[in-house]
Amino acid sequence: MEQRDSEAAPPTLGVGMVGYAFMGAAHSQGWRTAGRVFDLPLRPVLAAIAGRDRSAVRAAADRHGWAAAETDWRDLIARDDVQLVDVCTPGDLHAEIAIAALEAGKHVLCEKPLANTVAEAEAMTAAAERARTRGQLAMVGFNYRRVPAVAYARRLIAAGRLGTLRHLRFTYLQDWLVDPAAPLTWRLQREHAGSGALGDLGAHIVDLAQHLAGEPLAGVSALSETFVRERPLAAGPDGASTGARGAVTVDDAAVFTGRFTAGALASFEATRMASGRKNALRFEINGELGSIAFDLERLNELSFHDHTEPAASSGFRRILVTESDHPYLEAWWPPGHALGYEHTFTHQARDLVEAIASGTEPAPSFADGLQVQRVLAAVERSAAENAVYTPVQPPV
Ligand code: SOE
Question: Is-contact 123 202, C-beta < 8 A?
């Protein structure tokens, strides 16, 4: 970190990012805007971005505002102007890059899910714990915690407004794999993605459920399915289809139930086969004193039912989460001037920068990411055992 050169300019935090596809673009936006929207103790500087293809990574650097481009992530980690490494690659590279960055003395932000396996996530968490003793921090990118309405839901639950929780109902529905002609990208290959809808979407809702409940899941029971088992290989570099096909080696959908230690029951559904649903992350949580409901497709709103009110006039009411005392909103627009998906990445960057400046553990930590990974592994194990009981006719 550089020294302050005047009272007005905070010291800088050099960021290096590996990967520049969808998540790379989203994280770039977060790093670009966080220091302009919030008064941060450190000013993020987009120092360098890494990717294997020289011209593509240079184009990404220009488009997203990175000062330099590297074609080897090891060179990015070695740069003196990089103090934080942001890992936005497919899951199979998370562990190697994150551990190397931590061992090189950098802070790390890693996209979700933390890893492809529990063993990788354990190694990453151990590396993060060692790095912590040297003052470096590591965070996993579960960005939906940073939707203001979700952060406000957490506040209501923590303040006891729902009382003891009984039900947590989560779905995350997309439809980009409904078409059997959709190509076989890395997200459909176990060696790259670890799992399918489960790791990609299920990881988000498991993290949110545990975050909102304030405790980890104690057990799960699951079913999963790969509805389309073979797909055309992604087109070659010239864009032309090769005609070849390959096996889908991950789940298209996972449905599971869970139990929290304090007694609440949870249900989860993660699928990329829900025709008509684009990015529908929804939840409803019912407690003895009230309920909340949220839908990412209406992300500025939170529904709240206060069950302590007289029954005749109570019911779900819509809270427009755009007031300046709602989470993160102090820095944005006047009430009613809505936020969107991309703001979650600005909030994520802000929270990590503040944690680094104050030396406090960021959340979700790698240990939180490992906990989610353990739940995903338990879901896969339960689904593989396929303990489905056939309804039996009562004896006559
Ligand atoms: C793709 O399915 C995806 O981009 C996920 O990888 C993200 O984590 C989710 O936020 C949106 O959908």
Answer: no
